[in-house]
Every structure is written in structure tokens, then in C-alpha cells.
Amino acid sequence: MKHSTFLALAAAAALTATSAHAQEKIAIGDLTWTGAKAIGSVIKAVIEGPLKSEAEIVSGLSDGSLVAAGMDKGDGSADVYPDLWMPNRQGIWDSYIDGAETVAHNEPYPGTQRMYVPSYLADKVKSIEDLRDPNIAALFDKDGNGKGEYWAGDAGWASTKMWQVKFKSYGLSELWEAEVVPDATFKSQLKAAIANERPILFYYWTPEWIHAAYELSALSEPERTDGCEAMALDKEDWLEASKFSCVSSDALIYVAYSKSLEQRNPPVARFLSQMRLDPATVNEWILLIDRDGKHPADVAEDWVAANPDVVNGWIK
């Protein structure tokens, strides 16, 4: 065999091997919240559509720590963490992104935690400072006990305690009281209140579908300073032991993926590194899934088909 022929065959074999790796199936974490399900489904739709590869949202792979450990191994058991909230998952970041350097990520989109009113109340209630007015508190007094109610969240959420600490720290405990009911109950209350333009004050976050469905206004809070947040929610006297007298830091939310994909499926690794998510778009996905009852896969496939320019920017 001539030397040139041998080189040509070797090059062809190498190309074939590379192509085989490029088609390796991608394992996406099956995280439980709707935003993660939407993003995971869009990732799958892009991989199986424009990238012409294979992907699977692995049923039951819902523990974020297990997804992260799989990405660290690089063995294909878990390749993508669709919705990594920081600093909520600081341990994952420290262990695998900054530490072992086995996990990579894209540019994040922001997540916020604020107190809201419907926008038809925005001329009356613009800031936490406005809540010090007894006349404002009286507008939100639903049970006639002299205190305005605000929805602090669902029982068991850390954020529910956080808002009770905030109202204490802002000196609002004499005028306001927390209402703690399930999220579904609150959403029914919000729908009824907005339909009748009644006062309602509530905690919420982005991304979530209510921001796509309703006109909502966030209350301004004092800027962050050293020592303004000192939480001790694990203590028995958590309310007295904690302080939070400033705006909450925005979360940064990433798509994280195993660096092994840079060898195992380079087009997918490049796509994931270039994926840029718009919070308003994520809100729309969540609305279609949670409120309108559409399947995440259908939402994802329809969106990918309708937004080729955005998708092409991710995979170029």
C-alpha cells in the first residue's frame, strides 16, 4: 500500500470516528420546576432538530447533585443541567466548575425576587416605604383585623421566612401580616383580584408565567449595603435572629454542561456555550406549560421552528 493511500484511509477513519462521537446521545437532567423543564425541552429540540443529533431528558434524573456528579464523570450518564441557579447551588459551582473544572456553562440570565402589586396599583404603591402608610395598609386588610395582608409564599419555602424577616426589619410588623398559602391557592387569588381590580400584595420571582399573563409592578427597596442581610433561618428563633433590610440579590441562572462534550459531541458543546436565554421568553414558555397545559416538548418544538434566527445564533 502506498504511503499516500495509507494516509488517506487513516484520515477517513479519523473522520468517521469524529462523526460517531459527534452523534453521541446527550443526557439532559429532568429537573422538576417548569422553567427547567421548558429549557431542557428546548435544548433537546435544538439538538434533535437543527443539530441532527440525539438527546434524551432522562426520566427521574431530577436530583441536581446527581446531575452535577454525572457531568463531572463525563461518561454520558448526565450531560446537561438546564437551569443552574446561583448562588443557590454554590456547592456545585465550587466543586465542578471552579474546582475540578469538569463542568462548563453559558452566559446566564437573571432571576429576581421582589414584592409586587398589579400595575393598576402602581400609582399608589411604588416602594417598601409606601407600606409604612396606615392608609395603604388598610387597602390590603382582607379580614378587618387592622393589618394589611401580603402573600409571603408557600409553607416550607425559605423565601416565605425571608419576607417575614424583611417586613420585621423594615419596621412593618405593626401594619402588615404574612399570608402563607399554597402557590396554587395564591394564583387563584391573584386571578380573582386582577379580574376585579382589587388590592393584592405578594412575593414572586422571575422567571414565572404570571409575568407574561399580567401587568405587574415590583416595589423598590433600599440598595444593598454591608450587613443589610444577615439570615439565621436554621435557628429556633429565626425571626428574631435574622435581619434583611435591603433588596435581594438577583440570581444568575446558567445552562451547565459536561466539558467532556467538547470531545464527545463538539457541535452540542458549542451550542450550549452560546445559548442565550431571555427571561421574557422563558416566562412565555412557562405560561404555555403551566397555565395553558401544553406539553413542554410541544412548546419547545414550536418555538424552535418559529425562531430560526435565534437558534442559528446559538449553533453558528
SSE diagram, text form:
Layout: H1 3-22, E1 26-28, H2 34-48, E2 55-57, H3 64-73, E3 80-86, H4 90-97, E4 103-105, E5 109-118, H5 134-139, E6 148-153, H6 158-169, E7 176-180, H7 183-195, E8 202-206, H8 210-213, E9 216-218, E10 229-230, H9 238-241, E11 243-244, E12 251-258, H10 261-264, H11 266-274, H12 279-291, H13 296-306, H14 308-315
Parallel strand pairs: 1-2, 6-7
Antiparallel strand pairs: 3-12, 4-12, 5-8, 5-9, 5-12, 10-11
Helix pairs in contact: 2-12, 2-13
Structure overview:
The protein is an alpha+beta fold and 316 residues long. The chain folds into two domains: 171 residues, D-Maltodextrin-Binding Protein, domain 2, CATH 3.40.190; 134 residues, D-Maltodextrin-Binding Protein, domain 2, CATH 3.40.190.100. The protein is built from 14 helices and twelve strands. The strands form four sheets. Strands 3, 4, 5, 8, 9 and 12 form a six-stranded antiparallel beta sheet that branches. Strands 1-2 form a two-stranded parallel sheet. The chain has a two-stranded parallel sheet with strand order 6-7. Helix 2 packs across helix 12 and helix 2 packs across helix 13. The relative contact order is 0.18.
